[in-house]
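Hello,

Our lab assistant flagged a job as stuck in the queue for most of the afternoon. It eventually completed. Since we weren't sure the result was trustworthy after the delay, we are filing this so someone can double-check. Below is the sequence as submitted and the structure that was eventually returned. Let us know if re-running is recommended.
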Amino acid sequence: MPTRELMVRDAICEALHEEMERDDSVFVMGEDVGVIGGNFKCTVGLRDKFGDLRCKDSPICESGIVGLGVGAAIVGMRPVIELMFSDFIMVAMDQICNQAAKITYMSGGQVAVPMVIRTPMGGGRSSAAQHSQSLHAWLAHCPGIKVVVPSTAGEAKGLLKTAIRDHNPVIFFEHKMLYTTKFDDVPEVDEDVCIPFGKARLVTEGTDITVVANSIMTIKAEKALKSLQSEGVSADLIDLRTIVPLDMDTIIKSVKKTGKLLIVDEGHTSFGISGEIAARVVREAFYDLEAPIERLGTADVPLPFSPALEFPLIPDEKKISDAIRGML
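-- returned structure --
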Protein backbone atom coordinates (compact mmCIF):
# COMPACT_ATOMS: atom_id res chain seq x y z
CA MET A 1 0.00 0.00 0.00
CA PRO A 2 1.48 3.41 -0.96
CA THR A 3 2.15 5.74 1.96
CA ARG A 4 3.19 9.36 2.49
CA GLU A 5 4.81 11.54 5.13
CA LEU A 6 2.69 13.46 7.59
CA MET A 7 2.92 14.92 11.07
CA VAL A 8 0.91 13.14 13.75
CA ARG A 9 -1.34 16.14 14.37
CA ASP A 10 -2.15 16.39 10.64
CA ALA A 11 -2.93 12.67 10.46
CA ILE A 12 -5.37 13.06 13.36
CA CYS A 13 -6.99 16.07 11.69
CA GLU A 14 -7.26 14.14 8.42
CA ALA A 15 -8.99 11.24 10.17
CA LEU A 16 -11.49 13.63 11.74
CA HIS A 17 -12.20 15.29 8.37
CA GLU A 18 -12.78 11.92 6.69
CA GLU A 19 -15.01 10.53 9.43
CA MET A 20 -17.11 13.71 9.62
CA GLU A 21 -17.59 13.57 5.85
CA ARG A 22 -18.51 9.89 6.01
CA ASP A 23 -20.97 10.10 8.90
CA ASP A 24 -23.17 13.12 9.73
CA SER A 25 -23.56 11.91 13.31
CA VAL A 26 -19.86 12.54 14.05
CA PHE A 27 -19.11 15.89 15.68
CA VAL A 28 -16.17 17.41 17.56
CA MET A 29 -16.34 19.40 20.77
CA GLY A 30 -13.81 20.77 23.22
CA GLU A 31 -11.90 23.79 24.44
CA ASP A 32 -10.57 25.83 21.47
CA VAL A 33 -11.23 23.10 18.88
CA GLY A 34 -13.14 25.44 16.58
CA VAL A 35 -11.90 28.96 15.94
CA ILE A 36 -8.18 28.31 16.54
CA GLY A 37 -8.17 24.68 15.43
CA GLY A 38 -7.18 23.11 18.74
CA ASN A 39 -4.48 23.76 21.30
CA PHE A 40 -2.18 21.34 19.43
CA LYS A 41 -3.70 22.13 15.99
CA CYS A 42 -5.43 18.77 15.52
CA THR A 43 -8.80 20.24 14.45
CA VAL A 44 -7.67 22.90 11.96
CA GLY A 45 -10.29 23.59 9.28
CA LEU A 46 -13.09 21.50 10.79
CA ARG A 47 -15.20 24.48 11.86
CA ASP A 48 -14.80 26.18 8.48
CA LYS A 49 -15.84 23.04 6.62
CA PHE A 50 -18.54 21.58 8.86
CA GLY A 51 -19.86 24.60 10.74
CA ASP A 52 -20.14 25.59 14.36
CA LEU A 53 -22.65 22.88 15.30
CA ARG A 54 -20.32 20.05 14.28
CA CYS A 55 -17.07 21.59 15.55
CA LYS A 56 -18.03 23.23 18.80
CA ASP A 57 -15.92 25.35 21.09
CA SER A 58 -16.91 24.57 24.67
CA PRO A 59 -16.66 26.27 28.04
CA ILE A 60 -13.73 25.37 30.29
CA CYS A 61 -15.63 22.60 32.05
CA GLU A 62 -14.41 19.05 31.40
CA SER A 63 -17.25 17.45 33.36
CA GLY A 64 -19.76 19.35 31.23
CA ILE A 65 -18.00 18.57 27.94
CA VAL A 66 -17.84 14.83 28.63
CA GLY A 67 -21.34 14.76 30.13
CA LEU A 68 -22.77 16.37 27.01
CA GLY A 69 -20.85 13.85 24.92
CA VAL A 70 -22.34 10.94 26.88
CA GLY A 71 -25.85 12.29 26.37
CA ALA A 72 -25.27 12.87 22.66
CA ALA A 73 -23.90 9.34 22.21
CA ILE A 74 -26.91 7.82 23.98
CA VAL A 75 -29.32 9.47 21.50
CA GLY A 76 -27.41 8.29 18.43
CA MET A 77 -24.63 10.80 17.80
CA ARG A 78 -20.92 9.96 17.66
CA PRO A 79 -19.16 12.71 19.60
CA VAL A 80 -15.39 13.15 19.53
CA ILE A 81 -14.53 15.06 22.69
CA GLU A 82 -11.15 16.75 23.05
CA LEU A 83 -9.73 17.35 26.53
CA MET A 84 -6.84 19.81 26.29
CA PHE A 85 -4.61 17.75 28.62
CA SER A 86 -5.16 14.21 29.86
CA ASP A 87 -4.53 15.48 33.40
CA PHE A 88 -7.98 17.11 33.20
CA ILE A 89 -9.61 13.68 32.84
CA MET A 90 -9.78 13.70 36.64
CA VAL A 91 -12.35 16.51 36.53
CA ALA A 92 -14.63 14.27 34.43
CA MET A 93 -14.00 10.88 36.02
CA ASP A 94 -17.60 10.54 37.18
CA GLN A 95 -18.92 11.12 33.66
CA ILE A 96 -16.32 8.73 32.19
CA CYS A 97 -16.19 5.88 34.69
CA ASN A 98 -19.61 6.05 36.34
CA GLN A 99 -21.64 6.98 33.26
CA ALA A 100 -20.00 6.30 29.89
CA ALA A 101 -18.34 3.05 30.97
CA LYS A 102 -21.38 1.56 32.72
CA ILE A 103 -24.52 2.60 30.84
CA THR A 104 -24.41 -0.24 28.33
CA TYR A 105 -24.05 -2.79 31.14
CA MET A 106 -26.65 -1.20 33.40
CA SER A 107 -29.18 -1.04 30.55
CA GLY A 108 -28.71 -4.70 29.70
CA GLY A 109 -27.19 -3.77 26.35
CA GLN A 110 -30.14 -1.61 25.30
CA VAL A 111 -28.09 1.62 25.24
CA ALA A 112 -24.73 2.17 23.51
CA VAL A 113 -22.29 5.01 24.18
CA PRO A 114 -20.25 5.40 20.96
CA MET A 115 -18.02 8.29 21.94
CA VAL A 116 -14.30 9.10 21.70
CA ILE A 117 -12.32 11.21 24.15
CA ARG A 118 -9.10 12.46 22.55
CA THR A 119 -6.46 13.85 24.88
CA PRO A 120 -2.68 14.49 24.94
CA MET A 121 -0.54 12.62 27.46
CA GLY A 122 3.03 12.54 28.70
CA GLY A 123 5.97 14.64 29.76
CA GLY A 124 8.95 16.12 28.00
CA ARG A 125 7.47 19.56 27.42
CA SER A 126 8.27 21.07 30.82
CA SER A 127 4.60 21.63 31.54
CA ALA A 128 4.93 20.70 35.23
CA ALA A 129 3.10 18.20 37.40
CA GLN A 130 -0.48 19.08 36.41
CA HIS A 131 0.05 18.94 32.64
CA SER A 132 2.53 16.08 32.11
CA GLN A 133 0.96 12.88 33.37
CA SER A 134 0.39 9.56 31.63
CA LEU A 135 -2.90 8.28 33.04
CA HIS A 136 -3.74 5.47 30.62
CA ALA A 137 -3.52 2.87 33.41
CA TRP A 138 -6.24 4.74 35.34
CA LEU A 139 -8.72 4.34 32.51
CA ALA A 140 -7.66 0.77 31.74
CA HIS A 141 -8.69 -0.11 35.30
CA CYS A 142 -12.29 0.89 34.56
CA PRO A 143 -14.22 -1.88 32.73
CA GLY A 144 -16.32 -0.71 29.80
CA ILE A 145 -13.76 1.65 28.26
CA LYS A 146 -11.33 0.98 25.43
CA VAL A 147 -7.91 2.62 25.75
CA VAL A 148 -5.80 3.49 22.69
CA VAL A 149 -2.15 4.67 22.60
CA PRO A 150 -0.90 5.31 19.02
CA SER A 151 2.81 5.75 18.28
CA THR A 152 3.06 7.08 14.70
CA ALA A 153 1.06 9.24 12.29
CA GLY A 154 -0.29 6.26 10.34
CA GLU A 155 -1.17 4.45 13.56
CA ALA A 156 -2.92 7.54 14.93
CA LYS A 157 -5.05 7.95 11.81
CA GLY A 158 -6.01 4.29 11.46
CA LEU A 159 -6.76 3.79 15.15
CA LEU A 160 -8.77 7.02 15.41
CA LYS A 161 -11.00 5.98 12.50
CA THR A 162 -11.61 2.66 14.26
CA ALA A 163 -12.34 4.45 17.54
CA ILE A 164 -14.94 6.73 15.96
CA ARG A 165 -16.74 3.75 14.40
CA ASP A 166 -16.66 1.68 17.60
CA HIS A 167 -19.90 1.33 19.56
CA ASN A 168 -18.17 1.74 22.94
CA PRO A 169 -16.53 4.66 24.75
CA VAL A 170 -12.88 5.00 23.70
CA ILE A 171 -10.14 7.06 25.38
CA PHE A 172 -7.59 8.02 22.74
CA PHE A 173 -4.26 9.12 24.25
CA GLU A 174 -2.00 11.16 21.95
CA HIS A 175 1.52 11.90 23.15
CA LYS A 176 2.08 15.65 23.03
CA MET A 177 5.75 15.26 22.06
CA LEU A 178 4.75 13.40 18.88
CA TYR A 179 2.29 15.92 17.44
CA THR A 180 4.82 17.65 15.19
CA THR A 181 6.87 14.52 14.43
CA LYS A 182 6.72 13.35 10.83
CA PHE A 183 6.23 9.70 9.89
CA ASP A 184 6.12 8.18 6.42
CA ASP A 185 3.52 5.50 7.20
CA VAL A 186 0.26 7.34 6.42
CA PRO A 187 -1.84 5.69 3.67
CA GLU A 188 -2.91 7.77 0.69
CA VAL A 189 -6.06 9.85 1.17
CA ASP A 190 -8.20 7.53 -0.95
CA GLU A 191 -7.28 4.53 1.26
CA ASP A 192 -9.82 4.02 4.06
CA VAL A 193 -7.58 2.14 6.50
CA CYS A 194 -8.90 1.28 9.95
CA ILE A 195 -6.48 -0.45 12.34
CA PRO A 196 -8.23 -3.09 14.46
CA PHE A 197 -8.18 -2.86 18.24
CA GLY A 198 -6.50 -5.59 20.26
CA LYS A 199 -3.84 -6.41 17.67
CA ALA A 200 -0.32 -5.25 18.55
CA ARG A 201 2.22 -4.19 15.91
CA LEU A 202 5.51 -6.06 15.57
CA VAL A 203 7.91 -3.19 14.80
CA THR A 204 11.11 -5.24 14.62
CA GLU A 205 11.83 -8.96 14.83
CA GLY A 206 14.66 -10.64 16.68
CA THR A 207 15.65 -13.52 18.94
CA ASP A 208 17.51 -12.04 21.91
CA ILE A 209 14.80 -10.18 23.83
CA THR A 210 11.19 -9.01 23.68
CA VAL A 211 10.61 -5.29 24.22
CA VAL A 212 7.00 -4.18 24.78
CA ALA A 213 6.22 -0.48 24.51
CA ASN A 214 3.47 1.98 23.63
CA SER A 215 3.06 5.54 22.39
CA ILE A 216 6.32 7.54 22.29
CA MET A 217 8.16 4.77 24.13
CA THR A 218 7.84 2.64 21.01
CA ILE A 219 9.75 5.30 19.07
CA LYS A 220 12.43 5.58 21.78
CA ALA A 221 12.78 1.80 21.99
CA GLU A 222 13.12 1.50 18.22
CA LYS A 223 15.94 4.06 18.23
CA ALA A 224 17.64 2.27 21.12
CA LEU A 225 17.50 -1.05 19.29
CA LYS A 226 18.97 0.50 16.15
CA SER A 227 21.92 1.73 18.21
CA LEU A 228 22.38 -1.79 19.60
CA GLN A 229 22.49 -3.47 16.19
CA SER A 230 26.23 -2.85 15.99
CA GLU A 231 26.56 -4.94 19.16
CA GLY A 232 24.71 -7.81 17.54
CA VAL A 233 21.47 -7.36 19.48
CA SER A 234 18.22 -8.37 17.78
CA ALA A 235 14.83 -7.96 19.43
CA ASP A 236 11.11 -8.29 18.97
CA LEU A 237 9.77 -4.79 19.53
CA ILE A 238 6.02 -4.89 20.15
CA ASP A 239 3.94 -1.71 19.92
CA LEU A 240 0.79 -2.36 21.96
CA ARG A 241 -1.46 0.09 20.05
CA THR A 242 -4.26 -0.55 22.54
CA ILE A 243 -4.09 -1.11 26.29
CA VAL A 244 -7.73 -2.24 26.33
CA PRO A 245 -8.10 -4.64 24.59
CA LEU A 246 -4.59 -5.94 25.31
CA ASP A 247 -2.94 -8.30 22.80
CA MET A 248 -1.32 -10.81 25.16
CA ASP A 249 -1.13 -13.50 22.46
CA THR A 250 1.54 -11.57 20.54
CA ILE A 251 3.50 -10.86 23.73
CA ILE A 252 3.39 -14.47 24.97
CA LYS A 253 4.41 -15.86 21.58
CA SER A 254 7.40 -13.53 21.49
CA VAL A 255 8.49 -14.22 25.08
CA LYS A 256 8.39 -17.96 24.43
CA LYS A 257 10.78 -17.34 21.53
CA THR A 258 13.23 -14.93 23.20
CA GLY A 259 13.03 -15.90 26.88
CA LYS A 260 13.50 -12.30 28.03
CA LEU A 261 11.05 -9.40 28.45
CA LEU A 262 11.53 -5.67 28.95
CA ILE A 263 8.39 -3.51 29.30
CA VAL A 264 8.76 0.23 28.65
CA ASP A 265 5.90 2.56 29.58
CA GLU A 266 5.82 6.28 30.40
CA GLY A 267 3.30 5.75 33.17
CA HIS A 268 4.66 5.56 36.70
CA THR A 269 6.34 2.25 37.38
CA SER A 270 4.17 1.33 40.37
CA PHE A 271 0.66 -0.09 39.84
CA GLY A 272 0.75 0.47 36.07
CA ILE A 273 0.54 -1.21 32.68
CA SER A 274 3.97 -2.81 32.95
CA GLY A 275 3.06 -4.59 36.17
CA GLU A 276 -0.13 -5.98 34.63
CA ILE A 277 1.71 -7.31 31.58
CA ALA A 278 4.45 -8.82 33.75
CA ALA A 279 1.88 -10.61 35.91
CA ARG A 280 0.15 -12.11 32.89
CA VAL A 281 3.42 -13.26 31.35
CA VAL A 282 4.49 -14.94 34.59
CA ARG A 283 1.20 -16.81 34.65
CA GLU A 284 1.29 -17.92 31.01
CA ALA A 285 5.00 -18.24 30.15
CA PHE A 286 6.89 -18.60 33.44
CA TYR A 287 8.94 -21.63 32.41
CA ASP A 288 9.98 -19.95 29.16
CA LEU A 289 11.63 -17.03 30.95
CA GLU A 290 15.44 -17.13 31.08
CA ALA A 291 15.76 -13.98 33.20
CA PRO A 292 13.58 -11.84 35.46
CA ILE A 293 11.16 -9.51 33.69
CA GLU A 294 12.41 -5.91 33.75
CA ARG A 295 10.30 -2.73 33.68
CA LEU A 296 11.11 0.85 32.76
CA GLY A 297 8.71 3.62 33.69
CA THR A 298 8.58 7.18 34.95
CA ALA A 299 9.80 7.55 38.53
CA ASP A 300 7.11 7.57 41.19
CA VAL A 301 7.12 11.34 41.79
CA PRO A 302 5.09 14.20 40.22
CA LEU A 303 6.96 15.54 37.18
CA PRO A 304 8.73 18.82 38.02
CA PHE A 305 8.71 21.94 35.85
CA SER A 306 12.49 22.19 35.48
CA PRO A 307 13.79 20.29 32.43
CA ALA A 308 16.95 19.42 34.36
CA LEU A 309 14.79 17.61 36.91
CA GLU A 310 12.06 16.34 34.58
CA PHE A 311 14.02 14.56 31.84
CA PRO A 312 16.00 12.18 34.10
CA LEU A 313 12.72 10.82 35.49
CA ILE A 314 11.34 9.65 32.10
CA PRO A 315 12.63 6.59 30.19
CA ASP A 316 14.83 7.57 27.25
CA GLU A 317 16.91 5.81 24.59
CA LYS A 318 19.96 5.47 26.85
CA LYS A 319 17.98 3.97 29.72
CA ILE A 320 16.35 1.51 27.34
CA SER A 321 19.70 0.55 25.78
CA ASP A 322 21.30 0.11 29.21
CA ALA A 323 18.38 -2.04 30.39
CA ILE A 324 18.65 -4.31 27.34
CA ARG A 325 22.44 -4.66 27.76
CA GLY A 326 21.97 -5.52 31.41
CA MET A 327 19.45 -8.25 30.59
CA LEU A 328 21.67 -9.77 27.90
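-- support follow-up --
The delay was a queue issue, not a problem with the job. The result is valid. The two ends are 37 Å apart (CA to CA). The chain is about 35% helix and 20% strand.
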